[in-house]
Design a protein that fits this description.
The chain has about 375 residues and is of the alpha+beta class. It has a single domain (about 1-295, about 315-365), classed as 4-Layer Sandwich (Anthranilate synthase), CATH 3.60.120. It contains seven helices and 19 strands. α2 (about 95-110) crosses α7 (about 350-365). It is globular and about 65 Å long. The model is unreliable at about 85-90 (pLDDT under 50). The site of the ligand C=C(O[C@@H]1C=C(C(=O)O)C=C[C@H]1O)C(=O)O has 17 residues, from β7, β11 and β19.
Length: about 375
Amino acid sequence: MLKDVLNRVEGQLSLELPFVIYRKPNAQEVHAILQKDAELHHVRDFSEKGFVFAPFNVESPTILLPLHEQLKADFVKEKLPKGLSVNEQKEAGEEKAHHVQIVRQGILEIGKGTFDKVVLSRKQEVACANSPLAIFQRLLNTYDRAFCYLWYHPKVGMWLGATPEILLRTSNNSLTTMSLAGTKAFIEGEQPVWGQKELEEQRMVTEYINKALQDKVTGIRQSEVESSKAGNLWHLRTKITAVFQNNLSSIIRALHPTPAVCGMPLLPAKNFIGEFEQYDREYYTGFLGELNFKQEVSRVRSQRNQENKSYKTIKTATELFVNLRCMKFTDAKATVFVGGGITKDSDPLKEWQETVAKSNTILQVIID
Ligand SMILES: C=C(O[C@@H]1C=C(C(=O)O)C=C[C@H]1O)C(=O)O
């Protein structure tokens, strides 16, 4: 029962021991991983098995929760009260002025030819006295299609999020990733109409991912661009599949960070972010998820003139998600992180509004 899993996680938290509790997109099951001690483990080369939590900055270490104890339970949807809507939240004048200013600066740099795209973000602090586990349950109720999680390590902190973006999925040698960018508000009963700006910024991400993977995989295929709903927003998405051989580490290093969260070309965009954002993204726009999990797959093999034979195979699977629509808890405070892609056609005020809409994904479940 979910209640039992939540109780175990609560106990883990009161002992200040590391854990993660999560549900994958469109899935029923809630999983929890509990670490039996407070040791801080780091990933060396992605050949490890466990739950990873990686920061935006590739020079900082990626954390690994070993699979000391794994729990799971089915999630049943409940009717819960909704939180505040975006219009009811106060817009902070200073934050807005700063964000609009750095977006203007970014557009100027694009004009000079320093880069074609940069993703600029900000953080927002709000008071939050609710229990993290209660907020996690609200997240599960609200965002069926997202990867919803609550992660804790006493030496690092506590993070929570509902992300729509896959960094990569592998099952033995097959790989799936996605190019997700471009944002529009979701309006009930309406399909989004995409402009040149969004199509162009998403195309850049697709192109970058294809290039980044080119010498590391075979048989790259990509889907048509499609509209994908994420909470109160729409994004543009292309699915990309390929085959790889024993080089997961080099693939992860090639993909993270994509221009969906950093920019293109990578280095000048990253330098600009470092200079102008004026805060540490920490784990926002990093990635998290299952690394090298063993999956038992049941199959039925039909053989001519013989009875159907069922057999089981073990697959190695990795599922990593980009840490978006997320927040960090500290005492009775929550820090929400949001950003958006800037291109030559960006309008600074609209970019600010986009971050307000994105922050609402999380603020909606923490404020009541
Ligand atoms: C950077 C964020 O989202 C990313 C940026 C998007 C955009 O610029 O339109 C859309 C989806 C994400 O790839 C965020 O949610 O903070």
